[in-house]
Amino acid sequence: MFRTAYLRCSIAILLALGAVLDIAGPAAAAEGWTVAQLMQTLGKQSSGQATFVERKHLAVLDQPVESSGELRFQAPDRLEKITLKPRPESLVLEGNTLTVTRGKKQFSVRLSDYGEVAGFIDSIRATLAGDRATLERTYALHLAGSAERWTLTLLPRDQRMAEMIVRINIAGTRGQLREIEIMQADGDRSVMEIVTMGQTR
Amino acid sequence: MTRRFVPALLLWLAFVGTCIAVAGQTRFTTDLSAFLPEAPSEEQRVLVEQLRDGVVSRLLLVGIEGGDAGQRAQLSRGLARQLRTDAAFGMVANGEPVHRERDQALLFTHRYLLSPAIGAERFTTAGLRQAIGESVDLLASPLGMLTKALLPRDPTGELMQLLERLDGGARPATRDGVWASRDGRRALLLAQTRASGSDLDRQQAAISTLHSAFAEEAAKLPAGANLKLLISGAPAFAVDSRATIESEVTRLALVSTAIIVALLLFIYRSPTALVLGLLPVVSGALAGVAAVSLGFGMVHGVTLGFGTTLIGEAVDYAIYLFVQSGTRDGRDTFWPTIRLGVLTSICGFGALMFSGFPGLAQLGLYSIAGLVVAALTTRFILPHLLPARFAIRDVTPLGMQLRGLLAAAGKLRWLLIALAFAAGGVVYAQRDRLWNHELSALSPVPPAAQALDLALRTDVGAPDVRYMVVVRAADPEAALQAAEAASGRLQPLVESGAIGGFESPSFYLPSRARQLERKAALPDAAELRARLPEATRGLPLPAARLEPFVEDVAAARERAPLTRADLDGTSFAIAVDSLLMRQGERWTALLPLRAPTTGAHPGEIDTAAVRHALEGAPGSDTLFIDMKGESDRLYAGYFREALLLSLAGVLGIVALLGATLRSARRVVRVLLPLAASVLVVVAGLLLAGVALTILHLVGLLLIVAVGSNYALFFDGKGDGSAPPPGTLASMLFANLTTVAGFGVLAFSSVPVLQAIGGTVGPGALLALLFAAALARPSCPAAGAPER
């Protein structure tokens, strides 16, 4: 139970990583914006941070729950999701280890302990490094819009993943992510808005 | 045969007969109990009980190597499946979620009896409001993925409370769904035997089952997969040690007997003399076994191993008798010397009898009984059994040659003195690493096996439990209540970061009293329903959606308290059984502590804070134990004791020599070669990279005890005359048998035996050399000035 939850959240972090990556990629021509070009733009990695506001629409609640905080990336492989509201919490993915700290409690899991699902996360990481082939092994990709305003839709190919997540929509402008929407199989969905604060080359 | 001899012979026969009868009834053991001390303090007793019968003593660590990851995982699953159906194993864990569903079902069903958060406050309107608010906040976290489905039934988040508490400690890595080492090259499995640590036969059977199950599963893999099974853990050590000790004792006895028989045949050239010569040895050995059996209730295999050394010493008496009684001076010269030699040996071994280390105490008693009986047999029985025309080969020519050598040895005197001084220098220079202060130095487990154990243990992520709180009570309920009281004192330490966390049997099975308390805190359905609208006001979770919660609480109010039997089929049953156990008439609950992973002192437990927190805990039976510290203290205590006993032994020998020789100079002359041999042996061990343990210390004492015979013979009548040729020859023979007896031990793979053998073997040889070289110069031809 725990493990699946960690994984889904880490997928969100990894996707959010794109937000803190290079925004000043080569100005691609508006016409003919392709997955290949997007990948190339995303692949230019650097360190940086962004703020996020995440809303979860859950069937069990009358209103969405909102959380906000910061996303940070430090080269080469440290990703942090620091939630400040409503309760302080931190998720840190470093190399193979995902550590969750909430209050005085801390949990750690190793990504490699999750077999195919770990491959799922690795594929995202590889993608952010510009590895389209790995991404397409895990998802069917659909890109819509222009370089200035694109939406990438990821549909999980793996049956086990599809039982949890129906679809992931990522909206962005050039190499910068603006919003990640995750549609879950049970009808709940979460939307994370991302505002880049700065980045280093 | 003389008239006086007949009663002596009858007495001897009766004695030997009795000894055989006693020995026949004797229980021989080869387990590790000889290496476990009889613990003086309460904490140490817990330590020893844990080593003997605790969880650790029943846990096997299993590694699977070779093949590919898929094959290892398949084998791990197959092996686990077989072992889980085997009655010999209580718990088998390999990372497969066999218990997960039942565990979670149990936790969820009984959450209101198990959750530490349940109290009168929890179900007030304010308490509910706070708990529900926290659960709603949690939904914003990724952890909310876990709780959202359960929210209508568990809005106060009790399952989270339970899961958080259970989620402690490091878990092994997983590959293909089963545990694996960090590098992924080895699959891992833990198996707990049902048999206790002291039941070696059943432990051995369990290990054989493991081997055959592995072979069976490995056969299902395609040919050439070539997988390898690694087994470690206390049961494996115990079973292996027993096998080693058994085979070693047999082998050592055979080898040293063969060497000594060959030597005696060479000396005596007479089978009759050989048989007669072994008579005192056999009588002595029987007496030793009988004495230990009567004194300790059982005889340890290691004691028998030492028995070979007794052969080496007891056979000397007959040698002196056969060789020297034929010579001019006859008995009169050598009996007093032998008597003194036996007495000094008794002083040496006698000191061991007072040791708290069962192995050493047995050795002391065995040797004393053996030597006394061997000496008495030689003195009062053997001479009468000699045939009328008994003669062994004339050793006078050999003795004459030895005299020549003795003169040469005199020339070597300064060289040997220089050697002794050099040895003294080495010992002094390395005095800081002279002693080995680890209890593990006494462990009969070979270093390679210890290294494998460490590797598997690190992979499993289960470091040895170093700190634990132990509570004792008359019955399980009282023990659980005491564990809860201790938990209450430990919990604030977790919050403050003084400790990382702890385990308690009461987490899985709260005391009946605590469960009833929690039940009493649950409001009835009408009351709860009435409180919910106020408690959920302003939250996105309407009270109307919480009807399942009201039903679950109502059901919990009707449910009987959880008992140990309810835990069957879950992993909590194993946890409770490992942490709550009967010991004698009392029940013991263990609360192992975990070090914090972060904070001011990661990896270390603030022991002062723990002690302070436990101060004044109800019941005087709450102990905080540092297992490593306790075992080090235990060893240090032993060490001090062994040192004192050895000094007492040496003092006894000096006093004995003083009383007999009545001359300080002669005493010094007897002791000097012994001191020199001890120094050289210690220096040799140090140079070989060996740090000295208690057993080496005992070995040094034995060098003094055994070597004093030689020094006494060289001292002779104290008039400076060289020993007659016969005496010289017999001394050489006696020395060779002793060196053979102890020297064989030096090649043993049992560290205890090896330590003593490697010390006494060379020591005895050196003692003879030094005694010869340092003897009062008697040959003017040697050129040394008379003093």
Entry summary:
By secondary structure, chain A is of the alpha+beta class.
**Radius of gyration of chain B over alpha carbons?**
35 Å
Compute the CA-based radius of gyration of chain A.
Answer: 16 Å
- Largest sheet entry of chain A: 11 strands, antiparallel
Query: Percent of residues of chain A in beta strands?
Result: over 45%
- Determine the strand fraction of chain B and express it as a percent band: 5-15%
Helix-residue proportion of chain B: 55-70%
Mean pLDDT of chain A equals 72
How far is it from the N-terminal to the C-terminal residue of chain B, by CA? Answer: 48 Å
Structural class of chain B: alpha+beta
What would the average pLDDT of chain B be, to the nearest integer?
82
Total helical segments of chain A: 5
Q: Widest sheet of chain A: strand order?
A: 6-5-4-3-2-1-11-10-9-8-7
Distance between the termini of chain A: 39 Å
Helix and strand run of chain A? HHEEEEEEHHEEHEEE
Instruction: Tell me the overall shape of chain B.
Output: elongated
Task: State the helix count of chain B.
Answer: 28
Q: Roughly how much helix do the residues of chain A carry, as a percent range?
A: 10-25%
Features:
heterodimer, A: 201 residues, alpha+beta, 11-stranded antiparallel β-sheet, 5 helices, disordered N terminus, B: 787 residues, 5-stranded antiparallel β-sheet, 4-stranded antiparallel β-sheet, 63% helix, disordered C terminus
Provide an overview of this structure:
The complex is a heterodimer of chains A (201) and B (787). Chain A contains five helices and eleven strands. With 201 residues, chain A is of the alpha+beta class. Chain A has an eleven-stranded antiparallel beta sheet with strand order 6-5-4-3-2-1-11-10-9-8-7. In chain A, a hairpin with a 2-residue loop joins strand 9 (165-173) and strand 10 (176-184). Chain B is an alpha+beta fold. In chain B, the strands form four sheets. In chain B, strands 9, 10, 11, 12 and 13 form a five-stranded antiparallel beta sheet that branches. Chain B has a four-stranded antiparallel beta sheet with strand order 3-6-2-7, with helices on both faces. In chain B, strands 1-8 form a two-stranded parallel ribbon. In chain B, helix 9 crosses helix 10 and helix 11 (271-296) packs antiparallel against helix 14. Chain B is elongated and about 115 Å long. The interface between A and B is large, with 37 and 35 residues.
